[in-house]
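Deliverable D2.4 — example input (structure tokens):
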């Protein structure tokens, strides 16, 4: 049989119409492939930029100043300045633990003596100092102690041989300058204590002058 001639519709070849979309499909796939390549390149560039940003130190700038890289670790604050250590020449014993009273330097405590407590129940007398430095003062003498029985006004005062050690000087500030005052005392009694001053009636030993310490801190604040 003879092949039938192609059907023509208004001057168009149907076979040509059937085959026409194929180049367009190829072009479409090529366009999609090109877009995929561009997306991959953009993603790669964004990742590289992000990686570079994370590895590069952030800079902090201030108008009129050169930019400097910021660091994640804060710069340690400078340590507070330490006051100069006291010397024996500027260290004192405060009468009755009162910073506004008399300040003694190696006092002999003649007569009835030097009041050690604010209530005048303890005194130092006939003192001889074997050491008086910026860290410690050591002396021998008499420690006069009121037993406050039945009360302090009517109590009996006992003179007791003692070795007194003063220590822990605290700084006191004033308009005339700074000084150091002993804030701690300890005692040894070579001959022991009388029976009336033993047990619960024994004198405080060692003795920290807490009120004096607070007053000294406030004077320098």
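Example output (designed residues):
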């Amino acid at each position: 049989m003879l092949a039938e001639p192609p059907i023509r519709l208004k001057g168009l070849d149907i076979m040509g119409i059937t085959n026409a979309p194929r180049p367009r499909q190829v072009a479409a796939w090529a366009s999609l492939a090109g877009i995929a390549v561009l997306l991959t390149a953009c993603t790669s560039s964004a990742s590289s930029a992000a990686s570079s940003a994370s590895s590069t130190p952030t800079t902090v700038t201030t108008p009129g100043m050169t930019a400097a890289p910021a660091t994640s670790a804060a710069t340690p604050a400078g340590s507070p300045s330490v006051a100069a250590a006291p010397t024996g020449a500027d260290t004192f014993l405060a009468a009755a633990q009162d910073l506004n009273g008399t300040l003694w330097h190696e006092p002999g405590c003649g007569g009835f003596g030097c009041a050690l407590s604010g209530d005048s129940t303890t005194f130092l007398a006939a003192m001889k100092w074997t050491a008086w430095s910026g860290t410690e003062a050591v002396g021998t003498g008499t420690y006069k102690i009121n037993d406050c029985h039945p009360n302090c006004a009517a109590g009996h005062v006992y003179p007791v041989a003692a070795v007194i050690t003063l220590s822990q000087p605290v700084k006191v500030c004033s308009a005339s300058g700074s000084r150091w005052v002993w804030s701690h005392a300890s005692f040894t009694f070579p001959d022991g204590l009388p029976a009336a001053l033993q047990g619960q009636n024994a004198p405080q030993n060692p003795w920290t002058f807490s009120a004096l310490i607070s007053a000294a801190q406030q004077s320098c604040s």
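Residues 21-55 form the longest helix (35 residues).
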